[in-house]
Write a structure and sequence with these properties.
alpha+beta, five-stranded antiparallel sheet, binds magnesium ion, 4 helices, four-stranded antiparallel sheet, Creatine Amidinohydrolase, 27% helix
């Protein structure tokens, strides 16, 4: 961490980040509708990229450390960082996580949803629902004066009470003029520990939740993270600003109630 701690954003900067967040949200809706049986993950990526440029934004992930796509698309046992491919067609019963970001006016927005493809098993649906709820439990802790690991603690409690596990190998992050800023935000931890949360801190909270064990491994493509036990994994993410009066989700437009991410709005 830099000597001064994480960068705090001014209201005008948060307003720009809200524009970025709105674009991410809008495009996630289009991707959710396009995630039907038979669609390839490359088709989804191509759609996202077209919409990103139409809206005057720039893809945040394309070329990031060499990532080839604009969206990380991770199906079933894939945890995160799946590479869009014309050879990967979605099929009925899959769950697919769609994770991406954009840059607008020099600032980043970053969000992810996991959506069912057609009809999915009750257990797959429960994993998706618990992951979404765990993210919101974490967001509820994002108030000035609380501690950083209050957030991960709340996420972990929800996940483990449901009999699932929190991925340790990847974490949330500060976000602003860079996609990944200080601090790192684990999805687990001890309540009452970590830095004090202050107004102006903007965090991307992104629980990755496995149906089985938390262990992951990276495929030979050097990107795709999968569960070691081959069981399902789900992922949700929001970019959230901590304000004087509590958290504001920048990747959810005003008037859209939280808790329905990845569902028809
Ligand atoms: Mg993301
Ligand atoms: Mg992120």
């Amino acid at each position: 961490m830099s000597p001064g701690g994480p960068e705090l954003k001014a209201a005008a900067e948060i307003a720009v980040m809200e524009r970025a967040g709105r674009i991410v949200w809008e495009i996630l809706q289009a991707l959710r509708e396009a995630a039907v049986p038979g669609a390839t993950t490359l088709e989804l990526d191509t759609l996202a990229e077209k919409l990103i440029y139409e809206k005057g934004a720039t893809p945040a992930f394309k070329g990031y450390r060499g990532f080839p796509g604009s969206v990380c698309i991770s199906v079933n046992e894939e945890v995160v960082h799946g590479i869009p491919s014309e050879r990967r067609a979605l099929k009925e019963g899959d769950i697919v996580s769609l994770d991406f970001g954009v840059v607008v006016g020099g600032f980043y927005g970053d969000s992810a949803i996991t959506v069912p493809v057609g009809q999915v098993s009750p257990e797959a649906q429960r994993l998706v629902d618990v992951t979404r709820q765990a993210m919101h439990d974490g967001i509820a802790q994002m108030a000035a004066g609380r501690r950083l690991h209050d957030i991960g603690h709340a996420v972990q409690e929800r996940v483990e009470r449901a009999g699932f596990s929190v991925v340790r190998d990847f974490v949330g992050h500060g976000i602003g003029r860079r996609l990944h800023e200080e601090p790192q935000l684990p999805n687990y931890g001890k309540a009452g520990t970590g830095m004090r949360l202050r107004p102006g801190l903007v965090l991307a909270i992104e629980p990755m939740v496995n149906a089985g064990a938390p262990d992951v491994e990276i495929l030979q493509d050097e990107w795709t993270a999968v569960t070691r036990d081959g069981k399902l994994s789900a992922h949700f993410e929001h970019t959230v600003a901590i304000l004087e009066d509590g958290p504001r989700i920048l990747t959810l437009p005003p008037g859209i109630p939280p808790g329905r991410e990845g569902l028809p709005q």
